[in-house]
Amino acid sequence: MDVNISRSPVVDVTFSAPPSKSYTHRALIAASLAAGRSRICRPLDAEDTRLTARALRSLGVPVDWGDNEIVIDGTGGALPGGDPVTLDLGNSGTSLRLLSSIALVSPRPVVLTGNRRMLERPLGPLVEALRALGGEVAYLGRSGYPPIRVEGRFSGGTAAVDASMSSQFISSILMAGPSADGDVELKVPEMPASRSYLDVTVDVMEAFGATVGRDGYTRFRVRRGTRYTGREYTVEGDYSSASYFFAVAAICGGTVRVNCLSPASVQGDRRFLDALEAMGCLVAASGDTVTVTREDELFGITIDMSSAPDTVQTLAVVAATAATPTTITGVGHLQYKESDRVRVTAENLQRMGAGVSVGADRITITPAPLHGVTVNPVDDHRTAMSFAVLGLGVGGMTIRDAECVGKSFPGFWDALRGAGLL
């Protein structure tokens, strides 16, 4: 499916943020390992979260996905036995990484695999940590990458985790920690990539009754005997997905309001609002609504977005419409996402006329007159949504394979149409 995008006039629209993908994944896992029944209200219904739910069913967890809720009868931390099972997790890196440790809780051999891109996404640091904690993990293809086979017992102990490529290596072990035979202690020698997602992980674990000890982002502990307990849990709105709506105001001018957002959220992608404010937008919050207004031209900034990785592309396209250059740092690990996001973003902005330079851990965008192009998002949902929003400011834009947004935000195109922008 291709989507053609025309230039939009100044906007005055309201959107609702979809539920958080990160919170939905983690709530599914915590509820599956909990003692008792859980009801997850307002989950994100998207390709990635459905993959996690399907995989948990394959591991023997009763997961009933209903209308705007998921009911899970938890296993009390002891997954049932059975025949060996293969979990095909497509291109959901979150699903594969988080479930790699959950597989160690299962008494049967578990193979985790995915699509072609998934087999290019590194997994080595997580595998080494799982081996140190009792896992018998084998690579079934290239060393350091999926597919893997997980066997053994989650004995517990101490492991060092190199999370410079992904904080999900830490989150994976933490989420499974309450089911280990002993204490689990993780030492983190380098600052994790996307460290704010560790705050999300701990937030969900504690909401389901587990206790996590930590020293900032350098050491984490889950004590033997801590347990998840079933509960009713409502998934908060997603700041990553909301960033595209905020960007509409920044690029087109005018006002955008986004409902269903928690003002106290630990989501790192809230930093996107700080970036817009520093560039010249007006940002206000009231209740569960965040409002962004642009009245004058934007000016470039230099900002570290290492804790807000899913909004780097959104910020890059906004930067292309500013009056002066913008440098975004903390972006090196984005090469390991659904695509090499820095390279793809740079190439498409250059095709549109912008000046772009890329370094080891930064991207600099120098504004210039822009024109619409046809964008192939390379099956990356965030590329499709970012450049769609830029298309509203430029016109003449076509997004190829637009259905790829179903990975995280199936309602994205309908939301734009409902606001009269498509």
Shape: globular
The total strand number stands at 23
What percent strand? 15-25%
Largest sheet: 4 strands, mixed
Low-confidence parts lasting 5 or more residues at pLDDT below 50?
Answer: none
Share of residues in helices = 25-40%
Strand order of the largest sheet: 2-15-17-16
The CATH homologous superfamily of the largest domain is termed: Enolpyruvate transferase domain
Radius of gyration: 21 Å
Arithmetic mean pLDDT: 95
How many helical stretches? 12
CATH class of the largest domain: Alpha Beta
Binding site for phosphoenolpyruvate: 21, 93, 121, 168, 341, 382, 407
Domain Enolpyruvate transferase: 16-416
Pathway: Metabolic intermediate biosynthesis; chorismate biosynthesis; chorismate from D-erythrose 4-phosphate and phosphoenolpyruvate: step 6/7
Family: Belongs to the EPSP synthase family.
What does this structure look like?
It is a single chain. The chain is of the alpha/beta class and 422 residues long. The protein has 2 domains: 3-18 and 237-418, UDP-n-acetylglucosamine1-carboxyvinyl-transferase, Chain, CATH 3.65.10.10; 21-216, Alpha-beta prism (UDP-n-acetylglucosamine1-carboxyvinyl-transferase, Chain). Helix content is 31%, strand content 23%. It contains 12 helices and 23 strands. The protein has helices at residues 21-33, 47-58, 93-105, 124-132, 168-176, 196-207, 239-252, 271-279, 312-319, 341-352, 381-394, 412-418, and strands at residues 3-5, 11-16, 37-41, 63-65, 69-73, 85-88, 110-113, 135-139, 148-152, 157-160, 184-187, 213-215, 219-222, 232-234, 254-259, 282-286, 289-294, 302-304, 326-329, 355-358, 362-366, 374-375, 397-399. It has a 4-stranded mixed sheet with strand order 2-15-17-16, with helices on one face. The protein has a 4-stranded mixed sheet with strand order 4-5-3-14, with helices on one face. Helix 1 packs parallel to helix 6 (196-207), helix 2 (47-58) runs parallel beside helix 3 (93-105) and helix 5 (168-176) packs parallel to helix 6. It is globular, with a radius of gyration of 21 Å. 3-phosphoshikimate binds at residues 21-22, 26, 166-168, 194, 310, 337. Keywords: Amino-acid biosynthesis, Aromatic amino acid biosynthesis, Cytoplasm, Transferase. The active site is at 310 (proton acceptor). It catalyses: 3-phosphoshikimate + phosphoenolpyruvate = 5-O-(1-carboxyvinyl)-3-phosphoshikimate + phosphate. Belongs to the EPSP synthase family.
